[in-house]
Automatic annotation (TrEMBL):
<dbReference type="InterPro" id="IPR029063">
    <property type="entry name" value="SAM-dependent_MTases_sf"/>
</dbReference>
<keyword id="KW-0808">Transferase</keyword>
<keyword id="KW-0949">S-adenosyl-L-methionine</keyword>
<feature type="binding site">
    <location>
        <position position="129"/>
    </location>
    <ligand>
        <name>S-adenosyl-L-methionine</name>
    </ligand>
</feature>
<comment type="similarity">
    <text>Belongs to the class I-like SAM-binding methyltransferase superfamily. Cation-dependent O-methyltransferase family.</text>
</comment>
<keyword id="KW-0819">tRNA processing</keyword>
<dbReference type="InterPro" id="IPR043675">
    <property type="entry name" value="TrmR_methyltr"/>
</dbReference>
<feature type="binding site">
    <location>
        <position position="129"/>
    </location>
    <ligand>
        <name>Mg(2+)</name>
    </ligand>
</feature>
<protein>
    <recommendedName>
        <fullName>tRNA 5-hydroxyuridine methyltransferase</fullName>
        <ecNumber>2.1.1.-</ecNumber>
    </recommendedName>
</protein>
<keyword id="KW-0489">Methyltransferase</keyword>
<comment type="subunit">
    <text>Homodimer.</text>
</comment>
<feature type="binding site">
    <location>
        <position position="156"/>
    </location>
    <ligand>
        <name>Mg(2+)</name>
    </ligand>
</feature>
<feature type="binding site">
    <location>
        <position position="155"/>
    </location>
    <ligand>
        <name>Mg(2+)</name>
    </ligand>
</feature>
<keyword id="KW-0479">Metal-binding</keyword>
<comment type="function">
    <text>Catalyzes the methylation of 5-hydroxyuridine (ho5U) to form 5-methoxyuridine (mo5U) at position 34 in tRNAs.</text>
</comment>
<dbReference type="InterPro" id="IPR050362">
    <property type="entry name" value="Cation-dep_OMT"/>
</dbReference>
<dbReference type="Pfam" id="PF01596">
    <property type="entry name" value="Methyltransf_3"/>
</dbReference>
Amino acid sequence: MSNYESYRLNFEKELDPIVQEMEEDAQEHFVPIMERSGIETFIGLLSIQKPTALLEIGSAIGYSAIRLAQANPELHIATIERDEERHAKAVHYIQRANLNDRISLFKDDALTFDTSALPFDHFDACFIDAAKGQYKRFFEKYEPLVKTGGIIYCDNMFMHGMVFLEEQEVPKRNRTMIRNLKAFTEWIMGNTAFETSLLPVGDGILIARKNS
């Protein structure tokens, strides 16, 4: 644990028991969820932006959706998850957290999902946290649903440090994914339609504000 992480933990608030259970569940079953420092930073960013409608690509077991909804009482979230087991767990946890009225969960592949089924035509924010090698495709599909001035957030931009490695140092099974993730990062950082920043918190969070 880094000095920063140790210091930050001194100020961390006690978590909801359901959230603690979800973190333990994710660790036990190797489900990728946002790192503590990443989700806390994300919650802080949303407290500044104050969105009322957020679209999430990649629900997993519902951890980030629940954390964001708990921290932002006016926020409504639509979230898409293709994995059947993870979707079922997300349904379970969202019900237990009494957030069914503010979190709409869809079981589908986000790349082929019919966006007309979403509860809103446009969103203040979009959070992409699904297959890392497909970030550009997710971004291009869902960016039109984000309002002008809205923000698209992407997690795992560092992919556990693999983006910092030379290609031959990356495990072969991950090379295409990392190549695609790097290409997406280069593309969005140079895209003048967005004001984009890359934050070195958690596993790397990208923030892209849609220009008018």
